[in-house]
Amino acid sequence: MPPATRTRLERALLAVCFCTLALYPWLYSNYLSTTLTQWLPDTSTAFVILAFTVMGLGLNFVVGYAGLLDLGYVAFFAAGAYVAGWLASEQFANAGSVVFGGTVLPKTPGIHLSPWLVLLAAALFSALLGVVIGVPTLRLRGDYLAIVTLGFGEIIPQFVRNGDNLGGFNLTNGAFGMNGIDGLGFGNTVHHAIHTLPSNFLNELDSRWYYWTALALVVVTIVTSLLLRDSRLGRAWIAIREDEDAAAAMGVPLMRTKTLSYAIGAFFGGAAGAMITLQAGATSPDAFSLQVSIFVLCMVILGGIGNVWGVTLGGILLAYVNYKGLFAAGNTFNSTFGTNVDISQYAYLIYGVAIVLFMLVRPEGLIPSARRRAELVEEPEEENVGAEASPA
Amino acid sequence: MGTGVGTAAASSRRPILALVPRIRSRAVTALGILLLGLVAFWLVENAVHDIGQFGLVTLNGITNGSIYALVAIGYTLVYGILELINFAHGDVFSWGAMIAYSVAISWLGADNHSGIELFGILAVALLCAGAFCATLNVAVERVAYRRLRNAPRLAPLITAIGMSFVLSNAIAVVYGFNYVSSEPLLSRRALFTIEGQSYGWDKLIVLLITVPTLMSLMVVVKRTRWGKAMRATAQNRDAARLMGIDVDRAIAFAFGIGGALAGIGGFVYLVYFTQGRFDLGFQIGLFAFTAAVLGGIGNILGAALGGYLIGFIENYNSGLTWHAPGPSWTESLIFILLILILVFRPHGLLGEELSTRS
User: Is B349 domain-assigned?
Assistant: First the structure.
């Protein structure tokens, strides 16, 4: 296909996709038949799907661009979630009342910042954590890095679980997690400004707010990904992914470049974590298992490592299957055959089989990036010549 | 010329710059020694505090460490030969425990027998678990990893994670999501006591199985043709193939040995803890893998040593009374140790210095 038409076709497709996603809450509630909505997520579930897509895109900076295998991405989810808990709940009630632009009444005990600020703070804190984790560990290569990140992914939830008594100080509420976290939204600010709005228009509990915020974050993440990919930094990442030694020889500062990819990936992971927490209104250490890291990693792999559109598609698809598709399939199965199988119990069996089959049949992902496709096609032939001893 | 001046300036600065890494590595060494000293002091203080408890905890550490060692060797064999973290290995171990349960308790009713009959039943269960897991591990390699041997690094790793999900959830399909458990199979009657703390058959059998197993493993790896082929393949696959070694069979052999050891580990776990569940292998697998890295991945003796070290850390941390962080921090401690080892001594305790292979 000639590149020009491909771009035009892609643009049209993209516009259609975006409009469908933006109008999804209306479409879902007004225009779709019940047989279809049975298979489609409601707005809150769609929000979760988009939030996880942001995580997939964030991990793509690390795994896809810089080629650093991160098996502990859930650490940043946890960091974002707990920052949201600290800055928008009654966790620190005995510190007095700090209310700033939030959705709660003045004088509410605890710290309640505006959720938008909380999102930013969570993202920045996660990025900082990414740097702190990255600086000592990113010197390691390949599998060793994977193991260390896996270790961090296990340590941080345990720290959170035990964090209710750090020298007598209750930082995280331990295994109970944090509850009563404020919601997203502008509170009553919008209604105060425009009196003619109906009182239930986009109030803070409206799930559409969350949905559109998540969608906006997806767009921001995609745009950031694309801009960075074509920047000097992005080229440095890809150079490192292809050959670390060659990149270093060409003058790419390895540590700084790797740490930046880690921090940027963490930034979006933290934002997504905070958003999910603000919507759920609660968070607990049980939410941060290795499974989440793997789940997000699978989005990147399934979609096509390093390809933004592939990862977006993979993210939406996998999160859909996990949060809606599997239940819908189970319900349909049960009602058709009159059985009573709880298919979600076997979700991980199904995922496992899917991962293995997928890697065997199409390891490059649904929409592989052009560069990786080239690698995957050429590599076996090169290896047979005799470079097989060190599969890079 | 500019370059000449630059070179002169650089060479005049070099002695000082060259000192920096040396000072840094000395500082790291000093810090490491200090840390080890603190740990030693803490152990001695605990031993003085309550010698009985200390002795018991040490013996428990050996017992748990044996299980980690058996599982860790499977990781180290596979990593040594394929440079693949076989995430599914922990779940092969779980299968070992479950098969041992099925054979010993459901099928042969070990809880109703005693004496020589009981030992016969246990021997059958041990053999079944080992054989089953060896077959299972070889099958996993054949189905999931062999085709990806020349694929980019990430592909087999992800497949291994997928296999891990498949194996552990397959247990859930067969045995359900809850624990299967039995009455203690071996009498907990004390063989001897230290300061009121008893040591029974249930612990001794762990050592009675593990030590001969590890010894015969060393013989197999060091002395037999198969072991030699495996080591040659691990060193250089192409050269091994040129020397007429069937590389596929050598790799399958490594998986088989690793699987058998995991199966024996599963049996030992079942006999000692008398319970098992589908997700058993997850944490034990992670700990065992840590043990393999700790000892120097690819090194069998190192994996065993690492396994016992992890066993000690776990039990000292959760069992000692004087200023121990407690069981809720065990996982963190072990992973922090792993991270420290990887950052400061990536080749582990016994491993050889690796060249900078990416």
Answer: no
Residue of A nearest to B85 (CA): A143
> What is the chain B residue with the closest CA to A302?
B158
Q: How do residues B179-238 score in pLDDT, each as one tens digit?
A: 888 877 776 666 777 666 677 788 888 889 999 999 999 999 989 999 999 999 988 899
Residue B163 lies in a domain: yes
* Distance from C-alpha of B74 to C-alpha of B81, rounded to nearest angstrom: 11
CB pair distance less than 8 Å for B339 and A152: yes
Confidence of residue A216 (pLDDT cuts 50, 70, 90): very high
Tell me the domain boundaries of chain A. Answer: 32-383
Domain assignment of residue B247, yes or no = yes
In 3D, which of A223, A372, A391, A216 has the Cα closest to residue A305? A372
Cα–Cα distance for residue pair B299/B347, rounded to 1 Å: 10
How close B10 comes to chain A (CA, Å)?
A: 18
- Written out in words, the top-level CATH class of the domain with range A32-383 is mainly alpha
pTM: 0.83
Q: What is the pLDDT of residue A166?
A: 75
- Judge: A141–B338 Cβ closer than 8 Å, yes or no: no
The total number of structural domains in chain B stands at 1
B356 in a structural domain? no
Spatial distance between the Cα atoms of B44 and B160, rounded to a whole number of angstroms: 42
A-chain CB neighbours of B162 within 8 Å are 351-356, 359
Range of the domain at B249: 66-281
Distance CA(B158)–CA(B166), nearest Å, equals: 12
Nearest CA distance, B283 vs chain A (angstrom): 10
Integer Cα distance of A378 and B152 in angstroms: 11
- Rounded mean pLDDT of chain B? 84
